[in-house]
Hints:
The chain has helices at 3-16, 18-56, 72-79, 115-122, 143-146, 150-165, 231-239, 263-272, 280-323, 325-333, 338-383, 387-390, 400-426, 430-435; strands at 61-64, 84-93, 95-101, 104-108, 110-113, 127-128, 136-139, 185-192, 203-210, 224-227, 249-257, 277-279. It is of the alpha+beta class.
Amino acid sequence: MLFKDQLDFVTQHIKKNKLRVFMTVLAATMGCAFLIVLASVGFGLQDSIRNEILSDEKVTKIQVHGNDQFTEEQINEIKNIEHVETILETITVNASAHSFFEDRDTDSELYVANMHNFEQVNGKLEKGKYPTKPNEIIVGYHFAQSLVNDAERKIIEEKNKKAEAEGTFYNGSEEGYKDSLIGKEIELALMPRIDGAKETKKTKYTIVGVMKKPSYDWMINNSIYMDTEQKPMLATTLAATDVKEDDMFYSEFNIFADSMENVKPILDKLKDKGYSVFSVTEQLDQMNVFFLVLKIGLIFVGTIAVLIASIGIFNTMTMAVTERTREIGVLKAIGASPKLIQRLFLMESTFIGIIGTLIAVAISYVISFVANATLPLILEAATGEDAFSKNDIIFSLIPWQLVLIASAISIGVAMISGYRPARKATKIDVIQALRQEL
């Protein structure tokens, strides 16, 4: 029998029992769709958390733990490691920076760094340029917003009280300086963080750049950044207020790789040399292991639904063999081999599995799209928070690997379900089958 004739044989019998086959296909569709949608939750959560981590941290950054200062020899040793792009020392000044501009003022953190390395790490600014002169500084994205006068402070205080009564928080975004600060001159005084310290004399600085907006809406950056050339002057200023030299500055060293793929090899080499280091990529590795176990668990639970649907396929194929006993006898009488008869019934069960899987994949993508579009709106309405609609939260993600796994499970189970009835068909006695009444 030609393959085309085999297909005709299968489709003719499917058409004779449309309702039964439809219900069986529906069961297979529901089982496969449940498997895909359930597992897609794990893929979606993993992708959301991964994007959140990567947006918050520079993935090529390797943090160095401990307060020990690097020597020039150590810095050169690390720089000579293959694929190390730069080593950035960020110095935190142990004093609050009190800035004055017109009738406005604000308090912020003050950081000192090599501006060449700082530019390599942070890239393009939101506005302006990086400092090239001793009296030039760059400020955080929210520095202008934090510059307020006494009248605005009272307004912010009132809005804060109102927000607290409603269970929310007001960040003062409607107040502050609204024009550009690029090229504007401010006066800066330091207030050491020690008991009894007095504020230092004011020094004039020119703002030449503004940092990019932080990754998260709740993050406020009104810090001030200046070049390491200013460190001796800052030390002299703080020394005048009786601050001890060891208490003036705190250094943090971060090593940056030239690409994410080279972070792990650099990490391994640094650990072998005895450095205490950490990278966000290690956190990603731990997260991937957790979600791998979660996704396997979800696929296992979803497979149970497919196995339940296989009962329907088994019953349908068993009834098909019983109803076609005479036809099987005729096929055997004209010389059909047991393998051919088995193949015909396996083709029918496989056909049910394939149709059910195709429909299930289409339905799963629709459900995934609807879930990602509507769930943020539902959660926003239920909680009153607009964070769900603003953030790119993925509740369901269906990668092609999941489609392949689910399809293989669904079609495989369908074929296994039809195997026993197909084997039964090959054992039917020809004479008894031909004696069966039509």
